[in-house]
Write a structure and sequence with these properties.
- The chain is 36% helix and 15% strand.
- It has 317 residues and is an alpha/beta fold.
- It has two domains: 139 residues, Rossmann fold (3-Layer(aba) Sandwich); 161 residues, Glycogen Phosphorylase B (Rossmann fold, 3-Layer(aba) Sandwich), CATH 3.40.50.
- The protein is elongated, with a radius of gyration of 20 Å.
């Protein structure tokens, strides 16, 4: 029986786009034991929560820094790994050198697979599948989630990063527009507990909504997404949960988080990338999120209406 080590870092969204590759590896090595080496993400949600739903890994190795990763070597080497898949996001040259030394020389695994020539113009889930030489469409590797009667809509108006956030006034306009189209449907707000107050402000203004921010587990969120008409909101881990459940997605992206790279796993989506970068620092405090603010709510409404028409013609709604 083979022991396989997977290296993947990041938070919820990063973990979700890894799932097609993990399902493929499980199918290719059905008798293998899989282990995950990952960082302790800053987000409230531990990446282990998403992987535990599908019972991927026998054991998790968490590290805080490079030094901490070196201290883990005795434990990692005790499993004598037969295969290592480096599924980390795009790495700079120094990180690639460290990875090679760590996995190939210090761990001493002969079969080490990584992305030697990363293509930044393809979706992340496809880039990861390419590392394993998988040939089929990513949808074929995902679990089949039974979609149920479509009621209600999900909004997500929160993001950990300030420069991803849309203005609250635009959410209010979109909410009022949805009220006209679906006067009997509820708008359900999802996110973590830090999004609760902002979501409640929108609910109070549009007189419609249920505030579940910080109240649902990952599993319950996926079940919810299998029942709603569509997701609307920012590029967040919640958006990727919607995509995983096969829920249609309407989302917008800031300039520094390319929409082509971080597409949701949903078959049906409408995205709105910002086209201008005013970036000056990690939180874009100087230009106050101008890249996201350039995304017009009127154009977003037009795109939303087009998606709804398509979903109705396709029999999805």
């Amino acid at each position: 029986m083979k022991n396989v080590l997977v290296f993947r870092i990041g938070s919820l969204g990063d973990s979700i786009v890894t799932l097609p590759t993990l399902f493929y590896l499980k199918k290719k090595y059905p008798d293998a034991n899989f282990f995950l080496l990952t960082n302790r993400a800053n987000g409230k949600i531990n990446v282990r929560q998403i992987f535990q739903l599908y019972k991927f890994f026998a054991k998790y190795f968490f590290y805080h820094s490079k030094n901490n990763a070196l201290f883990l070597l005795p434990k990692i080497n005790s499993y004598k790994f037969d295969l290592i898949f480096n599924l980390a996001p795009n790495r700079n040259q120094l990180q690639k050198i460290f990875d090679f030394i760590y996995f190939k020389l210090l761990v001493g695994c002969k079969k080490y697979y990584s992305d030697t020539k990363p293509n930044r113009n393809i979706p992340e889930y496809k880039r990861l599948l390419n590392i394993t030489n998988a040939k089929n469409n990513f949808i074929e590797y995902l679990p089949k989630i039974k979609l149920k009667k479509k009621n209600n809509i999900v909004f997500c108006c929160g993001s950990k990063k300030i420069n991803y956030q849309w203005e609250i006034e635009k959410y209010i306009q979109i909410g009022k527009h949805i009220n006209k189209i679906y006067p009997k449907e509820k708008i359900i707000f999802l996110g973590d507990k830090n999004d609760y107050q902002k979501s409640q402000q929108i609910i109070n203004q549009i007189n419609n909504g249920i505030n579940f921010c910080g109240k649902l587990t990952i599993k319950k969120s996926i079940i919810l997404f299998s029942k709603v008409k569509f997701y609307f909101g920012e590029d967040t881990g919640t958006m990727h949960l919607a995509g995983l459940a096969g829920c249609p997605v309407v989302a917008f992206f800031n300039y520094r988080n390319p929409s082509k790279k971080w597409l949701p796993l949903s078959k049906t989506f409408q995205i709105f990338p910002s086209k201008i970068c005013y970036y000056k620092n990690d939180f874009c405090l100087v230009h106050q999120n101008q890249c996201v603010k350039t995304i017009s709510y009127k154009k977003t409404i037009q795109g939303l209406d087009k998606l709804i028409v398509y979903l109705k013609k396709s029999g999805i709604l």
